[in-house]
Amino acid sequence: MDLDGSQQDPEMKENPPVYVGREVDIKKSERMTAVVHEREVVIFYHKGEYHAMDIRCYHSGGPLHLGDIEDFDGRPCIVCPWHKYKITLATGEGLYQSINPKDPSAKPKWCSKGIKQRIHRVTVDNGNIYVTLSTDPFKCDSDFYATGNFKVIKSSS
Ligand code: FES
């Protein structure tokens, strides 16, 4: 029997979803960390939605699982505890504020730097949470800290 569908889907065979914990636990803690196919990820439960991303910030490898979640421009973001970069939970975009010096009102506007943090897929099945790593074929800045010598945070506190 093909329980996980891997016999039909070659991508699933190479990159199957990995069990990371129970729904009841993350709903209490609102975040958890996991290692998925040797990649460290953080999973957030925020306002009824799950989000998973590389655990180390694209900027300099800060521990995103220790950051606060705040809304910027109406978008929930994790704020990196090291230098306060803002990363959208839904898309992994880096947000920043900019001012147009030619605009007399000079009101800062939120802008996107594009996708900087790699986002992974979360699925829930029967109270269990699974993460499927993104295989989107683009170079994401957070890949640098998710692979090679930098990939493991020694202490998570
Ligand atoms: Fe995250 Fe610098 S390491 S903002």
UniProtKB/TrEMBL annotation:
Record-linked Pfam families: Rieske_4
Residue ranges annotated for the Rieske domain, each copy included: 18-131
Keyword Metal-binding applies: yes
CDD domains hit by this protein: Rieske
Gene3D superfamilies, per the entry: Rieske [2Fe-2S] iron-sulphur domain
InterPro entries recorded: Rieske_2Fe-2S, Rieske_2Fe-2S_sf, Sol_Rieske_ferrdox_dom
Keyword match Metal-binding: yes
Annotated PROSITE patterns: RIESKE
Keywords noted in UniProt: 2Fe-2S, Acetylation, Iron, Iron-sulfur, Metal-binding, Phosphoprotein, Repeat
Molecular-function annotations in GO: 2 iron, 2 sulfur cluster binding; metal ion binding
Domain of life: Eukaryota
Cofactor(s) this protein requires: [2Fe-2S] cluster
Name assigned to this protein: Rieske domain-containing protein
Name of the gene encoding the protein in the UniProt record: RFESD
